[in-house]
Design goal:
Number of strands: 6
Strand order of the largest sheet: 3-4-2-1-5-6
Radius of gyration: 19 Å
Helix content: 40-55%
Number of domains: 1
Shape: globular
Order of helices and strands: EHHEHEHEHHEEHH
Distance between the termini: 24 Å
Bound molecules: 3-methylbut-3-enyl trihydrogen diphosphate, magnesium ion
CATH topology: Undecaprenyl pyrophosphate synthetase
Number of helices: 8
CATH superfamily: Decaprenyl diphosphate synthase-like
Strand content: 5-15%
CATH class: Alpha Beta
């Protein structure tokens, strides 16, 4: 719980920046990228890490404050055991290799998701990376691993109940405070690569008023230019948060954080 004054899009109309403060990405299409090249699926995952590195760099150049990426869903355990095991090892290896570079670049690293199924070595590597980078402020990189939106909401409700035994009603604010991303504003822009147009149990609660951007590009091919295209598309949108277009264009409609829904 670390509510730094972030507001809920359904309670209050947020102030908007030209550049999305928070971008959430479903990095999809690694397997297809590899298959197209007659390579094993895991080769696509390895290349996917490189695509993430380039995307982080580009996000920093744009001045994005929060980048959240879906690396492994709570449903991805259903994959063949050797692919799951490869992904876990890749996570450990990438952490070992990249953490010092993230730190040097002022990036704060966080992981959201249920860690209880991870092997102790991975949990330790995650904790060490989070601790090392805890005071960095340039970009907050959050990796969603063994994450599910339903798990997140259910956990939040259970936490709120545990805090106040006998509670019969839970408020939106209480849920917001207990969710695993309570430290960040809601995503402004959601990107999914790989051509599928679905959320696949990602940030169900937090995406309430997020702008969606789908691209056919497979994740290993995603780069700074592709991120730029997504941001340009975002800048062309009109985010109304329930209001009319006319309200947005009249001077009095310039709702700020005081303008309650
Ligand atoms: C996304 O790529 C990475 C993970 C889910 C871990 P996929 O592995 O889902 O690639 P496709 O969708 O099969 O091409
Ligand atoms: C979503 O991709 C999860 C991640 C990218 C980590 P999937 O490839 O697992 O999603 P579905 O199964 O096509 O919906
Ligand atoms: Mg996929």
């Amino acid at each position: 719980m670390a509510d730094q004054g972030f507001i809920s899009s359904t309670q209050t109309v947020p102030n908007l920046n030209k550049v999305p403060r928070h971008i959430a990405i479903i990095m999809d299409g690694n397997g297809r990228w590899a298959r197209k090249r007659f390579l094993p699926r895991i080769a696509g995952h390895t290349r996917g890490v490189e695509a993430l590195r380039g995307t982080i760099r580009a996000a920093i150049e744009h001045g994005v404050e929060y980048l959240t990426v879906f690396a492994f869903s709570s449903e991805n355990w259903r994959r063949p055991a050797d692919e799951v095991s490869f992904l876990m090892q890749l996570f450990i290896k990438s952490l070992q290799k990249e953490v010092s570079r993230l730190h040097e670049n002022g990036i704060r690293f966080r992981v959201i998701g249920d860690r209880s199924r991870f092997e102790p070595m991975l949990v330790k590597a995650i904790e060490a990376a989070e601790e090392l980078t805890a005071r960095n402020t340039r970009l907050c990189l959050t990796v969603a691993a063994n994450y599910g939106g339903r798990w997140d909401m259910m956990t939040a409700v259970n936490r709120a109940l545990a805090r106040q035994p006998g509670l019969t009603e839970i408020t939106e604010h209480q849920i917001n405070e207990e969710l695993s991303m309570s430290f960040a504003p809601e995503p402004d822009l959601f990107i999914r690569t790989g051509g599928e147009q679905r959320i696949s149990n990602f940030l169900l609660w937090q995406l309430a008023y997020t702008e969606f951007y789908f691209t056919d590009a497979l994740w290993p091919d995603f780069d700074g230019k592709a991120l730029n295209q997504a941001i340009v598309s975002y800048q062309e949108r009109e985010r109304r948060f329930g209001r009319t277009s006319e309200q947005l264009t009249t001077a009095t409609a310039g709702c700020n954080t005081e303008c309650h829904a």
